[in-house]
Amino acid sequence: MGQIEFSTASLPQADRGHAWADMVEQHLNAIEVRVRDQSAFNGKFAGRRVGDNKLVQVWADYQQVRRNPSRHETALSTFNLIYVMDGHIELRSNFRTGVVPQGDWVLLSNQDRYEFETSSACSCFLVYLAGDWLKTFLPDPDRALEGQPHSAGNWHHSLGYGLRALAENRAEARDGAGMDQIGGLLALACDQVDAGDTTHRTALRRRAVSLMRSLHHRPDLRAGHIAAELNISERYLHSIMAGADASFGSELRGIRLAKAAAMLRSSAFSGKQVGEIAASVGLVDHVHFTKRFRDAYGVTPREYREGADQPALAGAPRL
């Protein structure tokens, strides 16, 4: 998705509520939306894709929203960050029940059921976050879900300012760095940052991992490419990764295997051969891919795909 905008203002009144529900489900999330008055409803949204994530601003009259994921949906891990700019929402989820007021936020997992109602007029940021990207900043997203409301100072205000700045930014080349700042602010708001996590080396490591996630599909991706993007030496990049008890090779391999595993689990890629999936994540040697996958998951890619519904085969890679 590039830039996308939608408004009910130009639609016939009789079509507004239904058209809004259809457009939200098609472009924002697989959710059920109900409005109070089909003909009098007003709503609009505007947003764009930022790397693996989506940033959307929503302005709308009262609506009821329900997320009830089907077991047939893709198993890719995604989250929604909702930041309320004006009005409020009344939320019911597995982790939180209550009002999210203006200037506050909530993190929701799209693998869970949730529902909320908005005030008569409400505007918010809806940020659709890829699970792999989010875990770069929040190593334990479930703790963030469970830990709300927040106790980590006033970082939620800074998070709001950051989202506004990113939404107003028109220099797409800066989107990646801007989104990484949002991830850092979210970590601070969730109190998941240790005292040493704000150092320059840590910031570079996070940026390096983010670049690996964006470029992992390139079979020829090397440490030198990432170092050049960061304007640092390859030796310094290896030092940064070693400081986090990792290496460039192991980090990139983990990203590729996790992406391949998610695709093998997803019905969206059921028509793809295992070799095609391996090549799409940058692993063109099928034999090497199968060996690395078995080392990480304990089964072959084909066995993993056939046992996708079995909990024993759905774990994280053993890297």
Keywords for this structure?
319 residues, alpha+beta, Jelly Rolls, 3 domains, six-stranded antiparallel β-sheet, five-stranded antiparallel β-sheet, 41% helix, 21% strand
Topology:
Layout: E1 4-7, H1 16-27, E2 32-35, E3 43-50, E4 53-61, E5 63-67, E6 78-86, E7 89-93, E8 97-100, E9 105-109, E10 114-118, E11 121-130, H2 131-137, H3 141-146, H4 155-168, H5 175-189, H6 200-215, H7 223-230, H8 234-242, H9 248-265, H10 274-280, H11 286-297, H12 301-306
Antiparallel strand pairs: 1-3, 2-5, 3-4, 4-11, 5-10, 6-9, 6-11, 7-8, 7-10
Helix pairs in contact: 2-6, 4-5, 6-7, 7-8, 9-10
Could you walk me through the main structural features you see in this protein, from its secondary elements to its overall organization?
There is one protein chain. With 319 residues, the chain is α+β, with helices and mostly antiparallel strands. It folds into three domains: 190 residues, Jelly Rolls (Sandwich); 54 residues; 59 residues, no CATH class. The chain contains twelve helices and eleven strands. It has a six-stranded antiparallel β-sheet with strand order 1-3-4-11-6-9, sandwiched between helices. It has a five-stranded antiparallel β-sheet with strand order 2-5-10-7-8. Strand 3 and strand 4 form a beta hairpin. Helix 2 runs antiparallel to helix 6 and helix 4 packs antiparallel against helix 5. It is globular. The two termini are 33 Å apart. About 3% of the residues have low confidence.
